[in-house]
## 1
Amino acid sequence: MSNAALSVITSDSPEKWQEILADLITDPKELTEILQLESTGSVNSRLARSGLSEFSLKVPRPFAQRMQPGNWSDPLLRQVWPSQLEDEVDCSLSEDPLQERSFNQATGLLHKYQGRVLLTAAPHCAVHCRYCFRRHFDYAANTPGKQQWRETLSQISRDSSISEVILSGGDPLAAGDNLIQWLLTQIDSLKQVTTIRIHTRLPVVIPQRITNSLCQTLSSVDSKLVIVIHCNHSQEIDSSVQLAMQKLRSTGATLMNQTVLLRGINNDAETLVSLSHKLFDMDVLPYYLHVPDRVTGTGHFLVDDQEGLKLIAKIRSILPGYLVPQLVREDPGSNSKTRLG
Ligand code: SF4
């Protein structure tokens, strides 16, 4: 990274990320104009008729800047563009493929796996990924106020088997610093909890979110802190993301990445190898390569297990073992992710 580039992005303005979050691209027409996309009439370019009202277009401008102008097949654009392919009817898909509603034990709390619970710390995200497995999730019913958080945390404290609390969402880093600090302090004070894990896409889509004050809060956590970023393509990583990861590394957190395997976006070995290298350059370990969940409206992204297995075999023949992510699938009701291969 050049010194000039660094000096531009190291200026730490806590409000900057909130300004970006308040100024997302939500109008498909604006996005096509910014990217100088011609209306080609292809099915990729045509807009979905369904789903847009409940899962609108949301693209942070720093993320759009990494898209290639004039290219409908750009891998970043395809992750966020609500294409007509979402309208295809496939009865094998479901709005709640992981049956999360049955694990939603209290407001903001999902208890799926032995020993760990997940809190939906923020009811929204900075980006709407069209493949999202929670695109139909009832966030309105899972946005606790402080009193409800206290009750939820008290419920966790009564279960001595829980040693790890996962902050997910939505995107937990879309919450304000005050709530994040309060939640981390509360969780940290639970005697049996040894690890706090944060799953987030914000360091990738709005790297300006990783402010010095957020890093101070993260550094103050006594539990082991694990931050799992969600990055699907090496084109998502630029100097601003590298700086964000450098800052997160300075908090002492263990950094890992989870990728969703997506047709037409990253389902080739060259792309995944490049992603692993770029992640490792930032001291981020490739952790999971997740077969997409079978969510209504996302059939065009699906990659089957056999194709995933072939890809992993190819990647394994190129990369050292520590750079090969585990290929996994989530099966509803199973007590852990299912490892493939
Ligand atoms: S950031 Fe994660 S939770 Fe939010 S829309 Fe994307 S995949 Fe879904």
Note: The mean pLDDT is 90.
## 2
Amino acid sequence: MIIEVESEIAMKMFGTKMGVLLAGGEIIELVGDVGAGKTTLTKGIAMGLQVEETVQSPSFTISRVYETPNDLRMVHYDFYRLHDAGIMADELRETVQDPAAITIIEWAGIVEGVLPADRLTVTITAPTETDRRIELTAGGEMGEKLLGQLA
Ligand SMILES: Nc1ncnc2c1ncn2[C@@H]1O[C@H](COP(=O)(O)OP(=O)(O)O)[C@@H](O)[C@H]1O
Ligand SMILES: [Mg+2]
């Protein structure tokens, strides 16, 4: 499934649309260059989940956790700066198994082995300064269900 957005706001709105569909247990991998809009999309997802806290890029902290009013938590990882995931890999392994957690990962390369095949992979490319092409692929049932709901 491919979506095209033409502004940062449209990206957030698409994220919000995704966020309202999430019920916990979903794993979303975000792929794209620096500045593609991975964190911007995550901000939209947080809006859809009714997260009140301001979402900040986890590039320095590696992970950030946000509570939702529906007793879910959105756990946002960014492994860009890490060469070895170390204990973060163990933390991630637990998070992806938590049915109340929505796991969102930027730069998942080094934790590839920890991620379940059944995840939604969102690949963002930037043909221009403000246009973004979002490609969504499902690795299993959970991802397929989300794609179906988004279509
Ligand atoms: N359509 C768009 N969607 C998302 N971000 C956009 C868009 N157009 C411009 N931008 C800008 O691109 C940058 C994306 O940054 P960010 O979301 O942090 O990227 P990433 O997390 O992929 O490195 C922001 O500065 C944002 O304002
Ligand atoms: Mg980012």
Note: Residues 38-39, 57, 78, 106 surround magnesium ion (ligand 2) (CB under 6 Å).
